[in-house]
Each structure stands twice: as C-alpha cells, then as structure tokens.
Amino acid sequence: MQIYSFSRNLLAAFAAFLFFILQGCGSKPSNQDPAEIDLDFNDAGIQQIISLRGSYSANGLPNTDALKTYLASDKTAQRLMSAIVLWSVQDSNLVPDLEKTLKDAYPQVRAAAATALGFSKSSKAAVILYGAFKDEANYKVKAAILEAIGRCGTESELKYLATVAPYALKDSFLLEAKSLALFRMSARGLINAEGTNKLINEFIANTQMYRPARLAAANYLARAASLEVASFEPALTNAVNTEKDSNTLMFLVLGLAKTKTPTALATLKNLYQSSNCGQVKINIIRGLRYFPYDSSKTLVFEAVADSIYPHLDLIAAEQLYHTGKDLDALIYQNLAASAKNWRTRYQLYAAAIRNLAIYKTPQRNFISQKLISLYPTVASDYEKAAIIRALSENVWNYKFINKIMFPVADSLLPSPIVLSACGEALVAIRSNPDFDKIVGLNKLAVVNELNGIFRLCIERADVGVQALVAEMFCDPKLEFSIAYPDYNFIKEAQAKLKLPRDIETHIFMQKSLNVLSKNANKSVDYHALLKLVEPEWQVIKTIESKNKALISTNKGDIIIQLLYKDAPATVSHFIQLAQSRFYDNKTFHRVVPNFVVQGGCPRGDGYGGFDYGTPTEVSNRRFNKAGMVGMASAGKDTESSQFFITTAPALHLDGNYTIFAEVEKGLEVVQKLYVGDTIRLVKLVD
Q: Are residues 426 and 562 located together in one domain of the fold?
C-alpha cells in the first residue's frame, strides 16, 4: 500500500500530530453502533475457524490463507472469530488484511482486528493503528488500539504515548489502555523518562484513578528494569501509605523500594509491621534487596521466623541467600536448623554456604556434610531435590551429586525430580562466578572431570537434565567449544528425542549445537513437528451447562469455572485428561510466591508432556488477579498437560499463555499450596 512508501519519520510525525489533536475529540461510543455480537460455538463456520487455528501445513506454516478469507465473510460472527483467532497466530503477513478489517461496521470486529495487529508485532501495524485512531468514535475500540500499539510500537510511538495530554477520569477504558500500553512497551525493553513520569504523576499519585489503570502502572514500576525513580520518592511514599487495594499495593512497595532512599526504607518497615496481608509483606521483603543489608536484616530475620503467612519465611530465606554476608553465615545455619518448613530450611543452608568467604572451606564442608547426612533420611523427592540444590553452593559437592545421578546399579536411579535437581546443581557449580578461585590449581582436572559428567548427562537421555546441560553449553564464557570439538554426541542424543513431547529439550540442544558449530542462524521449524488437537465439540457441548471442575488437593478443594468460549481446544483437552484420571496423584512441582502454582507434569519436574498438545488460545482475558488458570508451555503451541494458577496479578503473562479457567472457590487453598502438594483428582461438577 502507498502508506508504506512514505518516509518513516514523516509518517510517524503525521501520526503523532493526529494523535495529539484527537485527545480533545472525546471517546463516547457512537449511538449508531450495532449490537454486541454473540458467537455461536455450535455454528459450523465458527468451529471451522477455530479448527484452522490449530492446524499447520506440511512445511509448518499456519493456515493464514484460509483464515483471512473469513475476515471478508458476509457473516459478522465469522469475521469476529477470524480476527480473534489471529491473536494467537500472530502473523505479520496479515497486516494488510487486518487493516481493511479496522473499517468494519461492527465495533467488536474493529477492536479484535486492532488487537490482532498489535500481536503481529509489526512496526507497520503501529502506523496503521495510529491512523485508525483518528477515525474511531467507539471508546472500547480506541482502547483496543492503544493497547495494541503498546504491543507493536517503537520508540517513536512510545514518545507519543508518554507525552499526550491526559484523559478524563470518566474515560476508564482509555486510561487503562494507555497505562497497559506503556507497561507492554516496558516488557519489550522500551522505556523512557516521560513514560515513567506520566505513570507516576497521572496514575499513581492520583488516588481517584481507575483501579485497573493504576494496577497496570504499579506493575510497570515493579517490573520495568533500570528505572530512575528516586526523585519520585515523596509521591510513591504517599501512594503506598494511602493505597487500600492489596493487589496494587504489593507492586507499589516494589516501586518505592527502587527509590533506595532512607525514607522509603522506613515506610516499608512501618508498613510491614502494620499490614495484615501476607502478599504485601512478601514483596516488602523482596524490595529490601535495594537497600544495604545491615539496615534491613533485622526485618528479614523476623520474616524468616514467621509462621502465620504462607511462603513469607521462604522469601526471607531467599533474601538472605541473595544479599547475605559472611559474618552472619552462622546465623543462617542456626536458623536453618530450627526452620519448620523444609524449603525454607534448605534455602537457609544454601544461604550459609553461599555467603561464607571463599577461604572458609572447613565451615563450608561442615554444612555440606550435614546436608549429605540428611539426604538419605528424607522420603520426599522434592525435599531431596532441595538438599541437592543447597549442596550446589559448594563446588566440591559435584562428586556426591555425580554419584546420585549415575549410581552403581540402575535400580538405584533416582526419580526425574531428583535427576533434574542434580542437573541444576551441576550447572550451578560450573557456572559459579568464584569457580576458578575455589578450585585453584586443580582447575584443569576438575573441569575435565565435569566435562565428562556433562557429556554423560547428554548421552544418558533424561530430558530434564539434557535440557539444563544443553542450555549451559550456550554460555560462551565456559568455552565448551574447546571442550567438545566433536559434538556429535549432542546430535545423536537429539535424534533420540521424541517430538513434540521433548520439544523443550530439543530446542536447547539445537541452540547448543548452533553455538558449538558457530552456526547461530540454523533453526528448526518446530511447527512442522507439532501434533495439535482440535476442539472436541461434543465434549464442549456437554459442559455448556456444567462448566466447572473440582481440583481436589491435599490442602483442600478448588473449584474452577471453565472458559470454553475463550479456549475451546484447551478446555476439551483438559476435560478429557481429567476424565481419563490423568491428573490423579500428580503434584504441584513449581510454586513461586506472589506469582503462580504449577502442576500436572507427568514427570513431576516440569519437563514432562505428551506426543500431542493444544494450540495457544489467546483471548481478551488478562492475568489481572489471583485465580486465573493458564496452560504452561515452552513456546507458542507447545501446551500439553501442565497448568498453572496465578496467586497474584501477572499482567506480563497476557497474550503469551492460554487462559482456560478461573478459580471460583478455594483461592485460599491455592495460596497455601507448596511444592510437592498433591492433586488428588480433577472432575467436572455442577
């Protein structure tokens, strides 16, 4: 199109001029807007569009030619469904077709097309979106355009978003969209001082701001890297002291901590003592990493001893692990001995070993021997794995870990859970920044021995260990290209992987081969290998009136509402797994406080899956609160059986993971889950 032949600078300037002018145009919806479109999932055309989303051609390309024909359908619902499906396809080649759809008579279709343009990640799409903004009267469509610009815009668009005049408080959709757009850009590494200033002064400092918009701004402060916010300390202190919403507050405290001022530290300490919200307390402890250790350690020690708020003691132990000092290592060791939670206990032992001065080898060995003596006494594989990870803080423990990985008899081979922990530990040992100082004159012998172990890790065919070791091979500082001039053993191991089940390991092996062969451009088209299931429409039909599932755990019951209209393939797949009793006695193998709990892995370590999976199904739902249920993946269209439940807002996950359910009851159970807790069963309920 001719619009692409203009100079990029002239085009951006013209778009900026229009954008500035239109701030005073208002955002009220047109009185002539047609009614909302209801998608009928019993319609054959709708079903066909959804099925096309999950199918690829023989050369691994999505069926975009078939999908784009529906953008021009005379049936409004099909145009809408096609645009929605393209959120997940994310094909920049469809930008011209989506540009036409931005002129559809129906606001829902226009909004869906705008979102699809954003997901295309094309800078041309950003220009088109700016152009569409000037003609759009519907405020929901305008909001969709703004957020879409956040997904695909460049530094030029960031400057415009950061400097446009503010919207009125009544324009809630536009306020949230602008805040989200700046947040989306920050997630792509696009940040400027004007954007930070706008979000703090207009969204954070204004207590009357629309809450979802304020939440997005708080997430920006908490997650954006390299922010310079010291000058905003008074505004952020006031915001923290007056904020009533715990979801927003848990991110604001991290933003305040980034100011690194004494006043901020005092505010956080006071809030810690007065707050009765465990999630806020957790993020306060996390935020202490921005302050000198000696000024904050007393509060961390208090948190380590906490027995009221789930996971607070663990986060405090992690804080000591990352910021502790040699002189307090004995304190960490003593705290570990009295810790009630096993994850906290071994994290404290790890903190003690990690923070000991390099020359204190006897103390380091003493703690290591204590852990080694504990290892055979514990029954849980997850606890054994935690011990192994703690042992990785002492480089010389590689010999003990090697014996666990490669026992004298196959009957003694540990579970995948323990094996993966061994792989993590060996990688951590070799990647230790003090490795050379610790091994000293023994470096050549130790490195050669470890390189032999790593080769065995690749050849022994445990996919979890293989993935971890192959990823490490990509580190140029460790010079594995010298260690393995002949890397055929990786190719041979890669050829034995079963795809798509072992796709994550295959990806890491390919990356390592690229590094070792100095062929960084070689890639594998994994979509040609994927086996994606289509929605089972009869299964979907049975849950139209019975669309809830019970997840029974050893900590209590969780009821989730299945969102079959947002993710039909995923929901039907999940139901079939539940009905086959697949989830019975599976575990929650990953728990990250104030983020997610994750379970459903057939191996129990996060590296398990099937020979088939479901396509990624992006919807307009957001991970904007605790209790959103999504599918774990190793990349687009690699979802299998593992699912996660958010325990706090996680807006950075939006658009990257399928949301297929939402917790209706039992969120307090979700918050109490720990690594190793059990899924007793999953079943449909009324």
A: no
